UniProtKB/TrEMBL annotation:
The protein, known as: Uncharacterized protein
Origin: domain of life: Bacteria
Taxonomic source organism: Siphonobacter aquaeclarae
Length: 223
């Protein structure tokens, strides 16, 4: 997707809001949302690992709204957009914001989405609240974010890349164990070589699991 500072309804067919998190929502004469907009879903570097993302803090604004309605219950702080639908009618345009926990709709002539900061590369589909500079409904394309340039954020980024490198190493080791098991089942490897190599791989995997404990690659959360 090309990068632009301001997106409008003219770009609707190029855009997608799936899994964009809403941090703040204000409804009045306008509907204003502070969201994490996923600019790009990056294919995994290694088959079998997760996608990575380019994400931006953005302010999505629909002005001159009428006929606002809301269905279901929303829990602020954990709202993610499933999709935004546009229904062109004879005299107006209805917008339906479908979320994982409900939906709301309204009539508005169009929208503007302001990309407030440069894109973040992320291993997850959201940016931490600190990293994005908190919540904001500013209609700006030049939001100040000193935290992003600070030592704390730089250290966290370095740690994330260390975790990612270790997760890749574990992935290769797990794949090798699967291959070893197939060779063993087909009697295509010497038993002693099989046992020695499997023991070594399991030791490396145990180290990786320990190193990655508490990170987004922590397997203990789903093992």
């Amino acid at each position: 997707m090309p990068f632009k500072n301001i997106w409008t309804e003219e770009d609707f067919n190029q855009m997608g809001w799936h899994d964009s998190r809403i941090y703040k929502l204000r409804v009045g004469k306008s509907v204003e949302m502070d969201i994490d907009y996923i600019l790009e879903w990056n294919e995994p570097e290694i088959v079998g690992m997760a996608f990575t993302f380019w994400i931006v803090p953005a302010t999505l604004v629909f002005d001159q709204i009428t006929d606002f309605s809301c269905e279901s219950v929303f829990y602020m702080g954990d709202i993610e957009i499933e999709n935004i639908e546009k229904q062109v009618r004879e005299e107006d345009v209805q917008w339906i914001i479908k979320c994982h926990s409900g939906e709301f709709s309204f009539i508005a002539p169009g929208y503007s989405m302001f990309i407030r900061q440069k894109p973040f590369f992320s291993f997850e589909q959201t940016i931490s609240l600190c990293a994005r500079g908190g919540c904001s409904l500013e209609r700006t394309t030049n939001q100040d974010n000193p935290y992003r340039l600070g030592e704390e954020y730089t250290t966290l980024q370095k740690k994330e890349w260390e975790h990612y490198s270790e997760a890749k190493r574990r992935h290769f080791n797990l794949s090798e164990i699967e291959n070893l098991e197939r060779l063993h089942e087909n009697k295509a490897i010497d038993l002693k070589k099989y046992l020695i190599r499997k023991r070594a791989l399991n030791k490396e995997i145990a180290f990786s699991d320990s190193f990655l404990k508490g990170s987004i690659w922590d397997r203990t959360s789903y093992l």
